[in-house]
Amino acid sequence: MDELYTAEAVEGIAHESVSQGQKLFIWQKPRVFDGPSRGTILFVHGSSMASQPTFDLQVESKPYASVMNWFASRGFDTWCFDCRGYGRSYKGDDVLATISDGADDALAAAEYIADQGVEGPLLVYGISSGALRAALFSQRNPDRVARVALDAMVWTGKGSPTLEQRRTKLDQWRGTTRRPQNAEFMWSIFNRDHPGTVHDDFAQPFIDQVLELDDSMPNGTYIDMCANLPLVDPAKLAMPVAIMRGEYDGIASMEDLLDFFALLPNADKEFAVMPGISHASFAQKNFMIAYQILHAFYTRPKQLYRVGDH
Length: 310
Fold this sequence. Notes:
alpha/beta, Rossmann fold, eight-stranded mixed β-sheet, two-stranded antiparallel sheet, 33% helix, globular
């Protein structure tokens, strides 16, 4: 087997903190490595699933299905958290779980991680609305972020067929705090853009593990993405940024993301198109392409020359 696929089944550690006075569940998988950490990664989940199925997917005999296992096996300390409204965090009806709420939760998680003795800024990854949460967190707290990778993100929503369809239900989203979640909807995430891209061994475990935690999801991110974009200013993201887009992603249009990319001020930036991938990149047949892009971005050599150096 290609060594890229190897990963150990790393034992996770559950933590609990508070965001805006409410419970925040945090999950850690520490590095499997005799030596210093290669960095600390904070993963930020999207609109329709909690953090563990997204980033620590459990598939029998395939520990590499968990991106946290894969990075922990390569010397990174890995963390994720359930935004309020999801999974094992606070899920009261008063939580709409907007993008701004998620950025607050990311800050609370970052503060908790720092309190555990982790020094220096974080490597951050967010997917879909989690990319917006991660970007807004990074914009508000640049001193806490070394590098941020934004996967399947939208900026203005221009050219997004999925968002165009969702806008027809905007009044429905606004009329309630939460929407039902079921297997049929979960399958639609995999099939709406380009059927066949999802990994045959990952899809059903992913769906089962999502539904084990939640039978409904908060509507805040849907409302934000349909009615309140843009929420992030690329000119205020001073740290290195990677934009990751699946070839067939129906959420993030190429034009929208290229416009965003052009306004990023740091020359240490990249735009990566992932072939054969639709929206949920870590559950795709080509998931290893996403892993490799992220690993390369997080391990980029230190810049030795900058304009103005003599």
